[in-house]
Structures are given as C-alpha cells and as structure tokens.
Specification:
280 residues; alpha/beta; Rossmann fold; Dna Ligase, domain 1; D-amino Acid Aminotransferase, Chain A, domain 1; 3 domains; 4-stranded parallel sheet; 4-stranded antiparallel sheet; 7 helices; 23% strand
Length: 280
C-alpha cells in the first residue's frame, strides 16, 4: 500500500545529554529537505509511536535508541514499513552487541572486555575506561575514566547501584581523538562511505600524528556495514604510529559541525532509498 506520509522519530531526551537541541535540529532539517521533495513528514517523539494501531507511514527515519521504542518500530517494520536506521542496526550499537558483531565480522576494534558490575574480583591493568555495556553515554557515570584499581571498583559499583548489570572495560589508548560522520551504504572513492567527514575532537592536546585518511574511512565503512547502519557517527584514536583505533560507533548523531550539509545528504539518501530504490 502506498502511503503519503513518512515519519521522523526524535531521540529520547535522556539519550541526548548536552545535545538535545543539536539532535532535534538535524532531524528537523532532514524533514524540511524531504518536504522540499514533495513528501509529507510527521515528526514524533518515541512515546507517540504505537507500532500496532498506527496507520503505517511510507517509511520511518529515526534517532530513538531505547529498546521499548525500537520494539514498537519493529512492529511497524514487520508490516512492511522500511526504516533508516533499522531498529536492529540501532540495537547493534549497544556496546555489548557491537563487540560481538565486530568480532564476527573481523572489524578491528579497541580491546574490550565485558564484566559484571557486581564482580568485586575484576582485575585489569589501570588506567581503563569503564562504560555501561548497553547504550551510549546518557548521564554521569555511564562512561568513567578509572586511573586506579580503586577507581575501577568504584565505577563498577556505581553502575551496579543503578541496576546496570554489565560494563565494558577498555584501555586508555594514547593518541589524537577524531570524530567522524557517515551517510549511505556501499563504497565511495577509495572504499570510503558515500559521504564521510572527520574532524579532531576539540578538548584535547593535539599531537598531530600523521595517518592515512582513506584507511580511517575504510575502517569506518566496514564497521557501519557490519552493524547495518546507514546514518552514523563515532570516535577513533590515531595512534603515534598512525594507526586508527576504532573506539565507538553510534546511530544517527547530531552532525553538529556539518548539520546543513548532512541533512541534505541524508534526505537525498532517504529519497533514493525509498522513492526509487533502484538508484541506491
């Protein structure tokens, strides 16, 4: 059945710490770009999606991340409504799942160890980063730098006290922190994503390690493909030897530094994806 409207789903406010307006704006700009192409767009919060009783839209583009909202969207998906990103792809960005996906797909990723937050016998060489094993950073305590064994135990206890059962431990890799954005599937020039941008994180003492930009782009594309993402972002460290170390990949970031350009590119991708799939 052909439907005249498509839906855009905002990210949960709790999942946009310090980025509430940025996350809202990229979705609104994408919607405006789609409307300029003649589509009717309805923007919804995750709580406004029923999934069963709703009249299905033509397609859904989404930023929400919670399991409950993704489950309701999966119900729409089973009725034939396509999504970007798919609910499964978003779930794949949950850290514990992401580690498993990357291991299965042989995608190089920072050394990661999943532990119980209630295990007081956890031992690892400090310093380490302690990260909740499911969603990305939503509040203080979700991602903690632990310079000592005592700090590690305190970080795990803090997560356990909030009912978070597992954590991921990652070494503190030294180097230049870069952030990246990508849109599209398949490969562009030199194996990069069809649209790809990277930049140095501002809050750091930059060493300026030389590295192969095309290598970073290919690594990012392989990671996104393994997770099933079409609109994504993330972080990597450029080591002193020039090797990119992938730290994180997330679904549909705020694209803050490239918002207007990204919104236009995302809308073009969605139009090709859903209005004329043969062109994608």
């Amino acid at each position: 059945m052909e439907h005249s409207s498509c839906w855009g789903i905002f990210r949960e406010v709790a999942h946009s710490p310090g980025r509430e307006s940025d996350d809202t704006e990229i979705l609104r700009l994408t919607a405006k770009q789609l409307e300029a192409r003649g589509l009717q767009v309805i923007l919804k919060t995750p709580d406004e999606v029923n999934g069963v009783d709703d009249v299905p839209p033509r397609f859904v583009f989404l930023m929400c991340e919670r399991v409950e909202a993704l489950g309701r969207l999966r119900a729409l998906e089973t009725r034939g409504v396509p999504h970007v990103n798919t609910p499964l792809a978003v779930l794949n960005t949950y850290r514990e799942r992401m580690i498993e996906v990357f291991a299965e797909a042989n995608v190089p990723f920072i050394e990661s160890r999943v532990v119980s937050t209630r295990d007081r016998r956890v031992e690892t060489a400090a310093p380490v980063w302690v990260k909740r094993a499911d969603v990305h950073n939503t509040q203080d305590g979700d991602v903690v730098f632990a310079p000592t064994a005592d700090a590690l135990r305190a970080a795990l206890a803090g997560l356990a006290a909030r009912g978070i059962a597992r954590a991921v431990l990652q070494p503190d890799v030294r180097g230049d922190l870069v952030k990246f954005y990508g849109v599209g599937v398949g490969a562009g020039a030199n194996g990069a994503p069809p649209w790809f941008r990277w930049f140095y994180h501002k809050e750091q003492r930059l060493a300026g390690h030389s590295f192969d930009k095309a290598r970073l782009a290919r690594l990012v594309r392989s990671a996104a493909a393994a997770l099933g993402l079409e609109v994504y972002g993330g972080d990597a460290i450029i080591s002193p030897a020039g090797a990119p170390v992938l730290l994180d990949v997330n679904a549909w970031p705020s694209f803050a530094l490239y918002r207007d350009e990204a919104a236009a590119r995302i809308a073009t991708h969605l139009a090709l994806r859903f209005l004329d799939p043969g062109l994608l």
